[in-house]
Amino acid sequence: MSPAELRRALEELRLQREAELKARFSRSLPFADGLFDRWERARRLGFGEGASIYDSACVIGEVTAGARTWIGPWAMLDGSGGGIRIGANCSISAGVHVYTHDTVLWALSGGRLKRRTGAVSIGDCVHVGAQSVIVRGVTIGNMVVVGANSFVNRDVPDRTIVAGTPARPIGRVEGEGEGVRLVIERAGKAR
Question: 79 has which bridge partners?
């Protein structure tokens, strides 16, 4: 098959798959995300039963994820500095970055200092909002919400809602199962 024939065949496959996704789910995805099965990728990575991870997500180093955890498109999971553990029933939204190392002091010292490392742990039933960044050494508890575009540089206790840069507590999670609710606090008053 010539390069031109391969290109035509790939384009035909892309258009066919895009039409299928549009008809079935009303969506259009980047070619690889639409072509490859995200549940199969999660199985290949050793993630828990029913977990899924988009093809566009990067996985580096030691990364584990529990059952039914969803890892969205364009996520960066860099466990090369100590490993990342993500619990069950989590949503790791589009564009989330999780790092287990940083090279700030290495760069500033002209390479004389080593990179700093630390494992990251995310508990069960956690939602990490789109475009958030979680840095080395952070532990996030169970039933936590991280607001979109947050920078998490310290531990987050169970049932806490955090948001901002750096992420700060803004509320709590109450209840269980279908009775779960978010309580946002403003100026000392819950709403």
Answer: 61
6 and 88 part of one domain = no
Q: 40 in a domain, yes or no?
A: no
Answer whether 56's CB lies under 8 Å from 38's CB: no
When divided into structural domains, the chain yields a total of: 2
Asked whether residue 76 is assigned to any structural domain, the reply reads yes
Could you give the CA distance from residue 159 to residue 28 in angstroms, rounded to a whole number? 35
- Structural domain of residue 26, as residue ranges? 1-35
Say if 157 falls within a structural domain: yes
Q: CA end-to-end span of the chain, whole Å?
A: 63
Q: Give the rounded percent of residues in the chain with a pLDDT score beyond 70.
A: 97
Q: Are 100 and 81 in contact (CB under 8 A)?
A: yes
Q: Please count the other Cβ atoms lying within 10 Å of the Cβ belonging to residue 170.
A: 18
* Burial annotation 19-32 (CB, 10 A radius, 16+ → b, else e): eebeeeeeeebeee
- Residue 24 shares a structural domain with residue 59: no
What does the pLDDT look like over 51-105, one tens digit per residue? Answer: 999 999 999 999 999 999 999 999 999 999 999 999 999 999 999 999 999 999 9
Quote the CA–CA distance of 152 and 84 in Å, as a whole number. 14
Inter-residue long-range contacts of 42-46, CB under 8 Å, 24+ positions, other chains counted: 42/71
